């Protein structure tokens, strides 16, 4: 099974909304970059309220009493007939035992995901790793090279990448009777979505940086700027080579109207990953705010040459057409956006609204049902369910 991790992103050319990429979009390099030291001069603790809840990375993978009890009651009993890896998989993803639901709204620690029986893909990877290590299994994290998916929340845009986890042999396995070289990959996406995809091994400190960067982005969505800063700072300290944490910190400085600090931080993001279109887009806005118009224009031209139609381009045009009551044009624009992101729930929802305004009730119903099926948060699921139910009632009348 496979796991998809949704994370907040960065801004794009021609758009004045701030966006930032969260956790999983790493540059695909065959060899690791040289060790990078933490740039302490990028941090401006004096600008933000003191952190009253210190961030401790060891809490991310902590195994609590409930998790240990789960291993003892649901897993140990299977070990006479199957491998440790298979026993863990059966216990986690057999509906008769632990039922996990995908929820992209909040990145949980291992114990939080276990208690909630829910989490985005990064949360589920962290929880699986914590349980596996408690059982004595080795773990290897992997980034799966897939096309990034985009989403949004208010004025922030998000890109999602994908990670999974490989469970290796038990460290103390002299008495076990299964294949000592047996490995199992646990993925939270359908197999057809990740079949034949390349992967890149990730170190655990990068997973920690991803978690903290997600929490920074989630704090930004809630307009908790001070908390977002402390999460982004810790993300950079966890893995100075993870470029998206610099981008997130740059967005935080932009929100704080500290544009010189934003410039220096985004410059570090681009030095770490020169091909990051997200960091480039944020840099364009920063340069404009610094009145460095010529530099901003030159960088924006580079962005447009690489990405003439940024994510949500046709969708935003479709929303404008809806506001102008041009529902036929809106339908065409939403369909065009869906060709680029065929599974994104909000595009299906708005296409359903366009069909409804055109009197195409059956097509509207289909799109609302797809939006509900593809929703990634309980809030969205409830919204689409309500709209779908009302349309069902209307059609019956």
From TrEMBL:
PANTHER family: CELLULOSE SYNTHASE OPERON PROTEIN C (PTHR44943), TPR REPEAT-CONTAINING PROTEIN MJ0263 (PTHR44943:SF8). This is Tetratricopeptide repeat protein. InterPro entries: TPR-like_helical_dom_sf, TPR_rpt, Ycf3/AcsC/BcsC/TPR_MFPF. PROSITE patterns: TPR (PS50005). It holds the Pfam family TPR_16. Keywords: Repeat, Signal, TPR repeat. SUPFAM superfamilies: TPR-like (SSF48452). Gene3D superfamilies: Tetratricopeptide repeat domain (1.25.40.10). The keyword Lipid metabolism does not apply. TPR repeats lie at residues 243-276. It comes from Undibacterium danionis. Residues 1-30 form the signal peptide.
């Amino acid at each position: 099974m496979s796991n998809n991790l949704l994370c907040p992103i960065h801004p794009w050319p021609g758009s004045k909304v701030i966006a930032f990429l969260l956790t999983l979009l790493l540059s695909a390099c065959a060899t690791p970059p040289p060790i990078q030291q933490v740039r302490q001069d990028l941090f401006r603790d004096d600008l933000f309220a003191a952190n009253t809840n210190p961030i401790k990375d060891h809490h991310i993978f902590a195994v609590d009493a409930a998790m240990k009890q789960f291993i003892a009651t649901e897993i140990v009993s299977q070990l006479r007939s199957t491998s440790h890896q298979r026993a863990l998989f059966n216990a986690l993803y057999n509906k008769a035992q632990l039922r996990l639901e995908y929820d992209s709204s909040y990145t949980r620690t291992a114990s939080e995901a276990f208690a909630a029986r829910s989490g985005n893909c990064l949360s589920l990877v962290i929880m699986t790793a914590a349980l596996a290590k408690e059982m004595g299994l080795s773990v290897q994290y992997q980034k799966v090279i897939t096309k990034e998916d985009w989403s949004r929340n208010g004025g922030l845009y998000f890109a999602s990448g994908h990670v999974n986890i490989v469970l290796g042999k038990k460290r103390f396995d002299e008495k076990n009777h299964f294949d000592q070289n047996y490995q199992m990959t646990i993925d939270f996406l359908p197999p057809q979505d990740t079949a034949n995809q390349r992967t890149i091994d990730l170190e655990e400190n990068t997973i920690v940086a991803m978690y903290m960067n997600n929490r920074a982005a989630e704090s930004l969505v809630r307009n908790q700027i001070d908390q977002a800063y402390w999460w982004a700072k810790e993300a950079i300290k966890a893995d100075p080579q993870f470029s998206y944490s610099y981008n997130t910190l740059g967005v935080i400085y932009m929100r704080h109207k500290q544009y010189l600090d934003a410039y220096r931080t985004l410059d570090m993001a681009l030095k770490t990953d020169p091909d990051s279109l997200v960091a480039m887009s944020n840099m364009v806005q920063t340069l404009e705010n610094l009145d460095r118009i010529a530099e901003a224009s030159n960088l924006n031209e580079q962005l447009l040459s690489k990405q003439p139609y940024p994510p949500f381009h046709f969708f935003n045009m479709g929303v404008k057409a809806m506001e102008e009551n041009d529902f036929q044009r809106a339908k065409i624009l939403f369909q065009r956006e869906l060709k680029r992101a065929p599974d994104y729930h909000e595009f299906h929802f708005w296409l359903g609204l366009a069909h409804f305004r055109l009197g195409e009730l059956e097509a509207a119903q289909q799109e609302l049902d797809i939006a509900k099926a593809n929703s990634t948060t309980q809030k969205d699921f409830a919204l689409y369910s309500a709209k779908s139910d009302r349309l069902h009632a209307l059609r019956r009348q």
